[in-house]
Design a protein that fits this description.
About 70% of the residues lie in helices and about 5% in strands. The protein is mainly alpha-helical. The protein has one domain. A two-stranded antiparallel ribbon has the order 1-4. Strand 5 and strand 6 form a beta hairpin.
Length: about 270
C-alpha cells in the first residue's frame, strides 16, 4: 500500500482540518466572547466568499503552470485545474481562522483612529510588497511561487493597511495570536501531507529552502491567508464599535451601523 493510499486530500481534511475546526468551535463556545458575535456573523460569510473568489483563479493558474501537483489517487474530483478539495480548504481555513480569532480577547477599539497620512503610508507599504512579488515573478524559475504569493497578497494588504493599519497595531496581541496559531498548525499538517505525497511542489518553481522540512512558500501561504482573515475581522470589529471614525467620510453615507451593545466594551 502506497502512502497516498493512506492519506488522500479528503483524508487530509478528515485528519487535520475538520478536527481542528470542531475543536476551535467548541473552544470559542466555552470562551463565550460575545463581543465578537456581530463581527463573526457578518464577517465570516464575507471572508469565505472573498477567499474563494480571490484565490480560485490564482490557485488554478499555479496548478496549470505546474507549480505543484497531486499524488496519484489522492484527489477525489477536479473543478477546472484544481481539486474540489482545494476549494473546500479555502472555505474551511477561513472559518477556522475566523472562529479562532473570535475566541480571543481584544483591546477597546472604540476610540481608534487613522489619519489620511497613515492611510497613504499603509498603501505605499503594500505597493512595496507588490513590487518585490512582481520582481520575483518576472524573474521566474525558482522564485515564481514565492513571488506569486507575495504579489497576490499585496492588493488585499493594500486595502486593509490603508483602511486601518494603526488599529491592527493597537490590537497586535490579538492579531499575533490569531495569525500564528492556525499558521503553525496548518504548516505542520501541510508538512505531513507533502511527506505522504498528497501534493508535491515543483523544484523548478520553488526555492528549495525549507524550515523543519516545510518549503518556505507553503509556510508563507498559510501566513498571508490567515493574515487576510484576521485583519479583515479586526477591522470589521472596529467598524462595528466606531463606524463614525472607521468608515472613510465619502463612504459614510452608504453605511448605517450602530455599535452593538455587547461589542462596545471588551470582556
Amino acid at each position: 500500500m502506497g502512502v497516498t493510499d493512506a492519506i488522500t486530500y479528503v483524508g487530509f481534511h478528515l485528519a487535520f482540518v475538520l478536527p481542528a475546526l470542531a475543536a476551535v468551535a467548541v473552544y470559542r463556545r466555552v470562551r463565550a466572547r460575545d463581543g465578537w458575535a456581530s463581527t463573526l456573523k457578518v464577517g465570516t460569510p464575507v471572508v469565505v466568499f472573498l477567499a474563494v473568489a480571490y484565490t480560485t483563479p490564482w490557485d488554478n493558474y499555479l496548478v496549470a503552470r505546474g507549480v505543484w501537483s497531486y499524488g496519484e489517487g489522492a484527489v477525489l474530483a477536479w473543478l477546472w485545474w484544481a481539486p474540489v478539495e482545494e476549494y473546500a480548504f479555502f472555505v474551511l481555513q477561513s472559518i477556522l481562522a475566523a472562529l479562532w480569532v473570535g475566541s480571543l480577547d481584544i483591546v477597546d477599539l472604540s476610540d481608534a483612529r487613522i489619519s489620511t497620512r497613515q492611510r497613504v503610508v499603509g498603501a505605499l507599504a503594500a505597493a512595496a510588497v507588490a513590487a518585490v512579488g512582481l520582481y520575483w515573478v518576472l524573474r521566474g524559475g525558482q522564485t515564481l511561487y514565492l513571488g506569486a504569493i507575495v504579489a497576490w497578497a499585496a492588493p488585499v494588504l493594500g486595502v486593509q493597511w490603508a483602511f486601518g493599519w494603526p488599529v491592527l497595531v493597537r490590537a497586535r496581541r490579538t492579531f499575533a495570536l490569531g495569525v500564528l496559531a492556525p499558521t503553525l498548525y496548518l504548516a505542520i499538517a501541510d508538512r505531513v501531507a507533502i511527506e505522504a505525497g498528497v501534493w508535491t511542489l515543483s523544484a523548478t518553481y520553488t526555492t528549495g529552502v525549507t524550515v523543519l522540512g516545510l518549503p518556505i512558500e507553503e509556510g508563507l501561504f498559510f501566513l498571508v491567508t490567515n493574515v487576510f482573515v484576521v485583519q479583515s475581522l479586526v477591522l470589521l470589529r472596529w467598524v462595528f464599535v466606531a463606524p463614525a471614525t472607521a468608515v472613510p467620510a465619502p463612504l459614510r453615507r452608504f453605511v448605517r451601523l450602530r455599535p452593538a451593545r455587547s461589542e462596545r466594551v471588551p470582556r
